[in-house]
Amino acid sequence: MQIRIRETWKVEFLISLMSMFKELVKAEIKILLKSKFIFIAPVLFFFCIEMLVRFASDIDQVLLTLLSISLYLLPLLALVMGMNGFYSTKDYISLLLSNPISRSEVYLSKIFTYIILVSLFFLLGSLPSFLFRFPTLGTEIYKLLYVVAASMNVVIFFSCLSVVIGLLVNDKFQGIVVSLTVWFFYAFLFDFILLSIIIYFRDYEIQKFLLAMIFLNPIDLSRIQTLFLLDNPVLLGYTGGLFKSFFEGGFSIILCFIANAIWIVLLVYIGKYLFKKKDF
Questions:
Q1: What is the pLDDT of residues 127-160, one digit of tens each?
Q2: Which one, out of 51, 91, 182, 190, has a CA that is 20 to 30 A from the CA of 220?
């Protein structure tokens, strides 16, 4: 009898936690949606993808262009939205923490809110152009799902990273500058550093070192993973070719997925630790 009562109490407690978490996420979304500027993102995505689908001769070209747009613009969108949302709701966070709500719930609700919004904006902006032409896609629909999965990878990573930056940097302007610097580093500067190392140390055996460096960039990991799935080795570049020389195609995909998952889990735990120590 006591065991049943305990089990019932646990179930009720979990339901109440889920309900509270759901309400926190809904409240966060309502606050962020008050800014009309964030609706520009899905409109721009839709316009760009629609033009590509209309005028491109090959669906593979469209998907590869969508992959490039997603891997470079979605991190920027996630960082800017996360930073703006975090700094705009500091007073709201203080109010929440004055109530009997755990810090972990508040922290996770913020991450989930940013992930949900950026993902929705991306899906609403990019998928309609393909859905309108669904009968003509055929087997290409699987390739589209690969691109969407890679895009979700970077959305989750950079949404988590935006909260970590917000917790480390108190000033909003400085936080946005740091976010833009981080985005520029991952999107452009990282590959430039790799290329410089390849050029200046071409006479040395540095393949393993370069391979280790690739794991430091979730954008590169998502790009390599998707190009392997799309079976398009020509566009892998030097980093993708290096990956292919060390690992088989299937194992490379799994390895990229695991590396991205480790990055996300690591960021979530770092953010959780900082959030618990933060004085709002």
A1: 777 777 666 666 667 777 888 888 888 999 999 9
A2: 51
Out of 48-62, 84-98, 131-145, 146-160, the most confident range is 146-160
In angstroms, rounded to a whole number, what is the distance separating the alpha carbons of residues 73 and 78?
9
Do residues 24 and 92 touch, judged by C-beta distance below 8 A? Answer: no
Asked if 125 contacts 42 with a C-beta cutoff of 8 angstroms, the reply is yes
Q: What is the DSSP string of 132-196?
A: TTHHHHTTHHHHHHHHHHHHHHHHHHHHHHHHHHHHH--SHHHHHHHHHHHHHIIIIIHHHHHHH
Beta-carbon neighbour count of residue 218 at 10 Å? 23
Separation between Cα atoms, residue 131 and residue 118, nearest integer Å: 20
**How far is residue 165 from each of residues 180, 238, 276, measured CA to CA in Å?**
11, 31, 15
User: How many residues appear in the chain?
Assistant: 280
- State the residue for tokens 């810090």: 103
Which tokens go with 120?
């929705």
Q: Which residue reads 């309108």 in tokens? A: 132
Band (pLDDT 50/70/90 cuts) for residue 231 is: low
